[in-house]
Design a protein that fits this description.
The protein is an alpha+beta fold. It has 6 helices and 17 strands. The structure holds uracil.
Length: 257
Amino acid sequence: MSEERLQKILARAGLGSRRKCEELIAEGRVTVNGQLVCEPGVKADPDSDDVRVDGQALASEAPVYFMLNKPAGCLTTAGIDPDARDTVMRYVAHISERVFPVGRLDYDTEGLLLFTNDGAFAQKVIHPSHETVKTYEAVVRGHPSPPAMDMLRRGVILDDGPTHPAAARIIGERTVSAPARRRTGPPVEELVKGAIVELQVHEGRKRMVKRMLRKVGHPVLALRRSAIGRLRIGNLPLGEIRALDEHELSRIFENPD
Ligand code: URA
């Protein structure tokens, strides 16, 4: 990960306020990779540098887990967007642990996004070998026929290979605003009524749900992730984040009904 000011690293490791940690540094009690540091502005990388106070290595941060109902219009990255677009990190600015998003939702996708500082947990959620099921609700153009739904279930051939069998069903319909299909003139929005397709996949390929539905002739107009395993987004409002308890954490690795 990246470098941070030493007093911030010390404060997060539970050594007191940043002010108190600046005092520890000024008192000559802190070393970085064996070198005494007495200046509070010095930066270190808590993952790769050996930071010690009075010769004692820092305790590693306790693991924490959160879920966000990500709104559309923000980028999933722990870094800074070169185009200065809004990122999901604005929703975790108040969390003192160094959390990062688990996996990725597209800029225009809403819904369940997990945050943690636990790399092993994140891998278990993301890596296809663990087969953690992600449930998406896609509002699509038109109403997919039974053969189109069967294609989604069996797997479709995308440019990066076939998709695994997936659960797919139509759960309703919704009217959404979408770019009008016009050949000429400036882009305008129109109201479009489309089916809501629920898809359950365990692969994490880029824009996979959108590509699968386009492939069967039904481009996605709006997309939301409603669940990971048996952990559902429920009625958490868009843009809200909250901590997960033990029971909710275990639901992530259970197969949805
Ligand atoms: N599939 C997509 O196409 N987009 C997402 O954001 C997530 C899954």
